[in-house]
Write a structure and sequence with these properties.
alpha/beta, single chain, 7-stranded mixed sheet, 4-stranded mixed sheet
């Protein structure tokens, strides 16, 4: 067996031999070694980070070598209750005994649609998908059908489909003509959106945007976007794939009090089971009687049962207040450590408490990549897996937060010492991480 298969990360006491072996097997057959860029090797410092997971429970997972980690990625956001939640698992087991994919619609499709209608402000009608990209692509298609326009203004990340990914550096394979139809604009820049409407008068079908990421909306920004859309005959689509069921049960539109024409939900709505939804105005979504949005597993019943159970658990356990409380504890504790170590000009923990992340403040972007890589490396050596963000779940309790802050105290002290010495790159035990996306 090669030396790499016996790798042990420096000072961590963790063997990664099985993880390395599985990666070698994956390289023979799977381009990129993973089905999702953000889960692949280039998103982590290799040689230190495990490549494969064996099992997960609550706020933790175990790699294929048996090492335990606190999980702050949570499957890229879907696992809002915690891994393998017993109530969701039981609901799934019950539905599996009855079947999961049928030859006609199942009543659970109606029940979950009724549930979303009750909790999401704009949800007069509902259609289901499996991935966030299904929902955003469907929303753009129906918006184009409604307005009889082709162009789309976007702000944020909206999935892998041609209409959006063509506007990024990952546009390989997207026709040039398609790329010209998508018009990105910066968050919190109402004037930039106004300029797009002026330059593409009567051509923009919709504005699709994440209502919030890590920067809060400026006063009247979301309201201003809605007003611009109404004034210019375009639909407003909120991409709530991330914010839905996290800031509030009804998503950011409920939290901020701004109602879009359409909205896309996914990720946290079924605690890890594949499900997404387009919701919105009845007159617009009724066009789906003719607009083609149709695929075999859209009404798959097991994931819908998981959605019912997930929403029930969020109600029963007062899940949203919990995410805000523990998230604030983690964010405040992290920023206090940053101040104590004199790092406040270098990084900060930003965002709304249910979903926070490190922001790297160096003017040199290469320095920021190295700093992010070092922080991620030192976190995983202390048994915490993160992309630099904190995706919280109900399983992240006070004990987990305290364990995290203790580890952060150690790794931030190391980061401060490394910055004083000016040798960030030499402290990395593998290649720096590579950003998945940039605007083209």
């Amino acid at each position: 067996m090669s030396r790499s298969l016996h790798h042990e990360s420096k000072g961590s006491g963790r063997l990664l031999a099985s993880s390395q072996a599985w990666r070698l097997r994956a390289e023979r057959l799977i381009p990129g070694c993973a089905q999702t860029f953000s889960k692949g090797p280039t998103s982590f410092v290799q040689g230190v980070t495990p490549s494969f997971v064996s099992k997960a429970q609550g706020a933790c997972f175990w790699d294929v070598d048996g090492n335990r980690y606190l999980d702050y990625i949570m499957g890229l956001g879907p696992v809002i209750l915690g891994h393998a939640d017993p109530m969701v698992n039981e609901a799934v087991r019950r539905q599996m005994e009855l079947g999961m994919s049928f030859s006609l619609p199942h009543p659970i499709e109606v029940e979950v649609a009724e549930l979303l209608n009750q909790i999401i402000p704009c949800a007069e009608r509902v259609r289901f998908g499996k991935n966030g990209s299904d929902a955003t692509a469907g929303a753009v298609r129906v918006a184009r059908a409604w307005t009889k326009r082709d162009k789309v203004a976007c702000c944020g990340y909206h999935g892998w489909q041609d209409w959006f990914i063509g506007s990024t550096n990952r546009h390989f394979g997207v026709p040039h003509a398609v790329r010209q139809l998508t018009l990105p604009f910066p968050y919190n820049d109402l004037q930039a959106l106004h300029k797009l409407f002026r330059e593409h008068k009567d051509q923009i079908a919709c504005v699709i945007m994440e209502p919030v990421a890590f920067d809060p909306p400026l006063p009247a920004f979301l309201e201003g976007v809605k007003e611009l859309c109404d004034k210019n005959g375009a639909l407003l689509v909120f991409d709530e794939i991330i914010t839905g069921f996290r800031l509030a049960l009804g998503g950011a539109q409920e939290y901020f009090g701004v109602q879009p024409d359409l909205a896309c939900f996914g990720k946290a709505m079924a605690n890890g089971f594949p499900l997404s939804a387009i919701v919105g105005r009845a007159d617009v979504l009724n066009l789906f009687e003719d607009v083609f949005f149709s695929f075999t597993f859209a009404g798959e019943a097991v994931s819908l049962a998981a959605c019912q159970a997930t929403i029930e658990v969020l109600h029963q356990r007062r899940g949203i207040p919990h995410l805000w409380r523990v998230g604030k504890c983690l964010q405040d504790g992290t920023n206090e450590l940053i101040r104590e170590l004199g790092l406040q000009d270098t990084l900060a923990c930003v965002g709304l408490p249910p979903l926070t992340g490190f922001r790297f403040l160096c003017r040199d972007q290469r320095q920021n990549v190295l700093l992010r890589s070092l922080l991620q490396q030192e976190a995983v050596k202390r048994s915490i897996l993160t992309h630099g963000n904190h995706v919280l779940s109900l399983a992240h309790d006070d004990g987990i937060i305290e364990e995290t802050l203790q580890a952060y105290g150690q790794l931030l002290e190391l980061v401060a010492d490394t910055l004083r010495r000016g040798d960030l790159e030499s402290c990395l035990e593998g290649p720096p991480i590579e950003p998945v996306l940039r605007q083209a």
